[in-house]
Amino acid sequence: MADPAPPVIDAVVIGRNEGARLVACLHSLRGQVRRVIYVDSGSGDGSPAAARDAGAEVVDLDMSRGFTAARARNAGVARLTECDFVQFVDGDCVVDAGWVATAAGHLVANPETAVVCGRRREQHPEASVYNRLCDLEWDTPIGPAKACGGDALMRRDALTRVGGYRDGLIAGEEPELCLRLRRGGWGIERLDAEMTRHDAKILRFGQWWARSRRAGHAFAEGAYLHGAAPEYHWVREVRRALVWGLGLPVGILALMVGSPFAALLWLVYPAQVVRLALKSGDWQWAVFSVLGKFPEAQGAVQFHLNRWVGRRSAIVEYK
Fold this sequence. Notes:
Layout: E1 9-15, H1 20-28, E2 36-40, H2 47-53, E3 57-60, H3 69-78, E4 85-90, E5 93-95, H4 99-109, E6 113-122, H5 129-138, E7 143-144, E8 152-155, H6 156-161, H7 173-183, E9 187-198, H8 205-226, H9 235-258, H10 268-280, H11 283-291, H12 293-309
Parallel strand pairs: 1-2, 1-4, 2-3, 6-9
Antiparallel strand pairs: 4-8, 5-9, 6-8, 7-9
Helix pairs in contact: 8-9, 8-12, 9-12, 10-11
């Protein structure tokens, strides 16, 4: 009996004003996939032309509609035909030379698995504490997983069955998609293999704050959509953000009106930093983990305020 035909693998790359990073991303996919679809979201730096020169097919999103990464990925998939697997990549990432073959082999051997991801590393963790925090964030456990990130190889059939990404999400689109895939009986797997190198380029506190605020928005919207049992999707993350980033500060300030000694309650924050640092052995992570609850709470409140007034949330950009 003849061996089965190898799977057809295409790539969808999304980006906005990524410049040289996009070109490096596209070059890293050469020889690993059949076609590369680049979806551009209103770049003003010549990215579409650079992508065409690099051999990619370009989709220019209609920017009269609100842009989201989820919408861009769906637009890329819509251009693919007769494709078995789709490698999704963010335009600020470079794909490891052996990744696609490794991931595809796993999907072929495990037909119940819909998504395979690997190790995403930050290119320049030494450039700033914020880049280092991103590198720590990417370092997740190997094996069965609840979700992937923006870089992953997916089974197109599974993606189609659940309706693709949710267009309207401004962040957190992959965990929401993976939740629906898991509900459909599909598996998500993280391999012990190098996948991509990411260039966060977060060098200023304001960028980190905006990114954390976006995360809080994603937590709140995810919990609103899927916070019920049995998943309780991101309920704990929202609760932590609102307690530490809003509830406690408001409560302490209210108590200080009646007694100046209530100001001592602010010591709960450095105490929490010490607790997390002793547990993790990482003081930087502990400080920003506690500090991050403030922008996360801001993002969560923003989501619910917009929802109550019927206003669509705008994407939060930090680069």
